[in-house]
What does this fold into?
Amino acid sequence: MNNNLEQFERRLRLLFEENLIRLIPGMHAPRKLFDDLLAAMHENAIPVSEDKIFAPDEYKIHVPEEDLDNWITHQDILNEMADFLHQTGLSEGFNFSYPPTIIVLPQERSQSKDFYLESSISPANQVLPDTAAIPNNERPNIQDEIPGRAFLIVGGNENFLLEKSVIDIGRHSENDLILNEPHVSRHHAQLRAINKRYVIFDVGSTGGLFINGKKISQATLQPGDVIRIGMVNLIFVQDITSENPTTAITIEED
It folds into this structure.
């Protein structure tokens, strides 16, 4: 690692440590998290040939259930850490199946640590589908690919259970999730289950698709992500059981 990268790493360590202490007061060892992520990248890398080594691209932080909401609220910091892991790994010669992601999950109740970390490598050479909507007659319904206990909080007060491999979102009545709001396109977005993660795609909307305020064409959803479609906010939730999820709702214009 050259001097510039070492200086950059030191600055990021300080930045992340300060932010994690400020934003996640329930965690007592922010530096340990940073070090554990770097260690997981190095220790769990797998050589696939003499000149190619794949590092983990999926990092799961298991935290006490009472701290989960606080962690999810600040997913943006973890996304920055994932970007830094990616850049650090590339600079050290690692390959990645996908850009690294960090998600937060609840611990089993028997766990007593502040957090523990798991990492894994996604299957290599798998390309995400393009942003054209998948027609009804070509849709898989592979239950093993569907993330467990995932749902959307729609408009801040209603839950939409995600239980299909492909979910259409838009203003037209044929959509799975109907958002009857004038800024929403008839066919606005599509959710697809890929490697037990939900990936959202803009399928040619007029107003665009936004994740946490940033316009995107496609993105792998992380717990706590805020999706804006038209003037409607959707919050993606995973691994938190909803007491009364619904399978179809319509949001009417005020």
Notes: The helical segments are 3-23, 30-43, 68-73, 75-91. The chain has a mean pLDDT of 76.
